[in-house]
Structures are given as C-alpha cells and as structure tokens.
Amino acid sequence: MNEEQRKKQQPDTSPSDIKSVSGEDTKANSDYSKYFDFSGAKMEEDESGKQYMKIGGRSILINEQPDHKKGRRRGREDVEVHYDFSIPPEMQGIGVGKHYLIRTYGCQMNVHDTENMAGILEDMGFTETDDTQEADVIFLNTCAIRENAENKVFGEIGHLKSLKQEKPELILGVCGCMSQEESVVNRIMQKHQHIDLIFGTHNIHRMPHLLWDAIQGKEMVIEVWSKEGDVVENMPRKRAGKTQAWVNIMYGCDKFCTYCIVPYTRGKERSRLPEDIIAEVRDLARQGYKEITLLGQNVNAYGKDLDMGYGLGDLMDALHQIDIPRIRFTTSHPRDFDDYLIQVLSKGGNLVEHIHLPVQSGNNEVLKLMGRKYTREHYVELANKIKTAIPHASFTTDIIVGFPNETEEQFQDTLSLMKEMDYDSAFTYIYSPRDKTPAAQFEDNVPMDVKKDRLKRLNEVVNEISARRNKELEGEIVEVLVEGESKKNADVLSGRTRTNKLVNFQGPKSCIGNIVYAKINEAKTWSLNGEMLETAEVNQ
Q1: Contact 98, 167 (CB under 8 A)
Q2: What is the separation of C-alpha 492 from the centre of its chain, rounded to a whole number of angstroms?
Q3: Do 480 and 464 fall into the same domain?
Q4: Cis before 127? omega within 30
Q5: What's residue 61's pLDDT?
Q6: N or C, which end of the chain is more exposed by having fewer CB within 10 Å?
Q7: What pLDDT is stored for residue 19 in this prediction?
Q8: Residue 492: how many CA atoms within 13 Å on its side-chain side?
C-alpha cells in the first residue's frame, strides 16, 4: 500500500507497531548537533523556586525536559493506577467563550490521545473549531516515526508564526511523540519561540496545569517526562465518532527494534487493569457503538507486566461475551502472538476476522539487524497456524525496504514472502533513520534511488495480490459497517467488512452507523463496489 492509498485509511500522517508514514521518506541527513548549543542561554530562578531559561529574548519555564538516556532505562518500578483526575479549580470555566483546535498526526494512539485532550479542554469550557483564525488554543499532536512526519509538523509550526504575531494571546502547543525527542524540544526553544507549551505523551493529564502556566506566565512552558508515568483512568474524552471507538489497553513497548523510536517516545509497557477495560467496553456497548479497536504499541504483550497470568487472549475472551458487534485490535508483534490468543480469536462472533501481523522483512539477516528476534520460518509457521484456525481471515502486514546493508538478494526474500503469505494488503515504507535509535548508528548505505526502486517493485507485488484477493469477493454477500459518505461522492456510502475491506455502495443516509449486507459487484485493487441488500440484525 503506497502513501496515497494509506492516507485513505489512516489519520493524517501506524511501527510496525502502530505507525504512519510515507513510502517516500528521504534520507535523514539533518545535523541535530546545532540544536544542543545553548551557550548564550542563562538560567534564572524566581521566588517560588521555578527554573527559567532566558534565551533569544524569551523566558522558558522548564519543569522537565526529555532525556534520551533517562528514557532508555527500564526499571521494574510499580505502576500505580489513578482514578482521581479532575480539572483544577482555577482552570474550571476558563475556556468559556473560547475555542480550541487540535491537529493530529500519526497513528491511532495519537487519535486516542487527542480524544483525551479534547475532553479535558471541553471540561474547561472550550469549544472545538477547525478554523485557525477562530482558535484561542492550538495543539499539534505529533508523530516521530519518520522524518517526513516531523517535517510536516515543523512546516506547520512555521506557518503558525504569523498567526501568533497577529494574535499574541493565542496559545500554541506541541505535544505527542516529537515532544519526547531532545533534538525537537531544543530546536523549538532555539528557533520557534512563538510556541507557548511543550508536553509529552506521559503527562497529558497535566495539561490543565501547564496551560494555566502558559496563560498566566506568558513564557514558554516545557514539561516532558522521559520516564513513563502511571496509568491515569477517568480522564474525560471526546470521541471522534459515534459508531467506532478506540480503547487503549496498554501503553509503551519493550521490544526495542533497532529502527523504532516508539520505546523512547511512549515508554515501557504498562497495561491497564482488565476490569477497567471491560467496564469501558460495556459502557460503549450501552451507548450504541458498533465497533471497538483495542490499542497498544505492542497490543498482544498486554498483561505481561501485571504479573497476574492474564493476557490478551483472556481479555478478548471476556470481551467476546459483551453485546457489541465487532472487536478488533492493533498492532501485534509476532513474538507475542500465542496459541491461546489464536484459540480465542477462532471463536468468531464479535471477534472479527482480520489479522495485522507486521513482518518488516522476509530475510533473516535483515530481521536480526532490525532486532525483531524472530526468523522468517517462525513467522511463516505462526501465520499458517492463524490461517488454519481462522480460514476466512484477511491478513495484512508492514514492510520496510532499504534497511542498512539490505542487498538485492535479501530484498528478493521479502518479495517471495509477500507471495508466499498472499497478504490482502501491506503498508510499505522506505527506511529512514530516527535520531538516537540503534539503527541510526548504522551506515545508511542503500542509495535512495535503490530504495525507491525496491518500494516500487514491492508495491507492484502487493497491488497484484490485493487485486486478486478482492476479485475473489465478486458476487459474495458481505457484512458492512457503514462509516459515512464516500470522500469522492456524497451520494455513495462507504464502510468496512469484518475483514477490514472498504466497500462503496448507494443507500439511504439513515444507514450510516449501522450494519448492512451488500453484494459485491466490482472489485478494485484497494476497495470494493457493491449494492446494499438489507440491514443486518447482529446478535451476539
């Protein structure tokens, strides 16, 4: 799946483990060292003990800065669960008559975080807008998974400077995964001093306090926790839709694939308690939601940190009993996909038949360099086990081409794996180094023209298989959850099958948010055209 096709399925810009990137990433050649030169900065302390940095004519309140070395350390400290989130008294009602805008880049986890931030802001009285001119608070919820994603954000930061000059009272904030990077925070402090607030992925619940400091103090406020925080329940949330919902079940990742920055931006693995997840899903069912997606950077590692012998298979088995039509999860790591999970998924019902299992490469030497800690043979054995247990499932994956030292022969192994696995689709990417990751120390020795050629040849294979797999559905009757109007034609409705295939058809607008049956008349490479037959009665 190339960049244009991916944009149709994902938010603005899902790691192998939740990632979102363009297949046309350019070679990273940025010199980050210049963003660590603060020789002209002065540190001051006020009467309350707060530390300020004076640089470029502006004061910067630094509660905590990102520290990559600190973020690398993984302790076994107990993670506490907090149920006492509340808006501070001084911030209650501060947003009445004011508007906020959040621009979200990246994966489903970022979308979920944006829902929490929107909920908090609305509890403070703010109203959402999509007009930058109307907004009083603008947050950029950022993605760090690829250089292109970062470039988009810095482009937007630059565009907002003139708006800040016109409207000095406007609060501009940068949050999300980019905020967890030292070089990014330092670059903003030195070059983009119109930004008012920087906070990270671990302290979203602190946003009201930080916003108060930014509004009252008129200085840039930075609070980015490098060590992951506790699990904070009961934060308000403004969900993006009324039909489908994201439910986070865990945070962070402990896999440390050599190319991936997620373990540093999202921290170590921390699982929510089963009872809290189950209660949230039951509440969504009562509200009439038709589909939930369980989220985690490495979702099938769920529960390992709880030390209670309860994993994703146990959770899925419990959710299987809830009266909600569809349950999905993303994204999996092959090392954690166990036999019990496969057994539970084979029960069907509201557990849908779609497995996204990133492989990244079909060559064992490249997989070893990537730190994936499985072999092609192990992956194929696991995939075939899943396909045997769930024979009608669609199967998708992630692939990176042009990893350091990848030879043409090794790339051919990836092509052969694509054909062997017969994937319904794949998200395909060109490798780009991320600052401070182990792979960033490797020589990026695959030329860009070779990377682009490999991506092109890979996509040709992916497209051919996807078109053939879709062709097999012509004449079939499928169950479709109607998501809304087609982006290309308001007279056409669009939705997804249980196997996550996109179906376009004509029907009454009253079908939006409901499950219908449709007969597939025409198969395209990335979508299906059909005709609606009837509304489905789904009984779990």
Answers
A1: no
A2: 28
A3: no
A4: no
A5: 75
A6: C
A7: 32
A8: 14
The radius of gyration of the chain's CA atoms, rounded to the nearest angstrom, is 23
- 332 part of a folded domain: yes
DSSP state letter for 63: E
User: Rounded to whole angstroms, how far apart are CA atoms 360 and 366?
Assistant: 9
CATH number of the domain enclosing 514: 2.40.50.140
Closest Cα to residue 146, out of 26, 257, 35, 31? 26
Which positions make up the binding site for [4Fe-4S] cluster?
107, 143, 177, 253, 257, 260
Domain containing 290 — which CATH number? 3.80.30.20
Alpha-carbon distance 258 to 299, whole Å?
19
Whether 192 and 333 map to the same domain: the answer is no
Residue 20: what pLDDT? 32
Which 8-state DSSP code applies to residue 80? P
Q: State how far the Cα of 446 lies from the Cα of 411, in Å rounded to an integer.
A: 12
Same domain? 283 vs 374: yes
CB hemisphere CA count around 432 (13 angstroms): 23
Binding residues: 107, 143, 177, 253, 257, 260
Range of the domain at 467: 231-472
Confirm if 530 and 478 have CB atoms less than 8 A apart: yes
Q: Which two tokens stand for residue 65?
A: 């800065």
| Domain boundary pick from 472, 498, 519 | 472
Single residue among 173, 192, 223 that ends a domain in this structure = 223
pLDDT mean values, one per 10 residues, the chain (540 residues): 44 34 37 48 62 64 71 68 92 95 93 96 97 97 87 94 95 95 90 94 93 87 82 93 94 94 90 97 97 96 94 98 97 96 98 98 98 98 97 96 98 98 97 92 96 98 97 97 92 96 96 96 96 64
> Residue holding tokens 């807008």?
129
- Planar angle of CA 19, 2, 364, nearest 5 degrees: 65
For residue 18, is it within any domain? no
* One domain for residues 518 and 468: no
H-helix segments, 245-311? 262-266, 274-286
Task: Give residue 54's pLDDT.
Answer: 61
Assess contact for 423 and 395: CB atoms under 8 A: yes
Coil, strand or helix at 2:
coil
Helical H runs in 203-329? 207-217, 262-266, 274-286, 312-319
The number of distinct structural domains making up the chain is 3
pTM as predicted = 0.85
In a domain, 21, yes or no: no
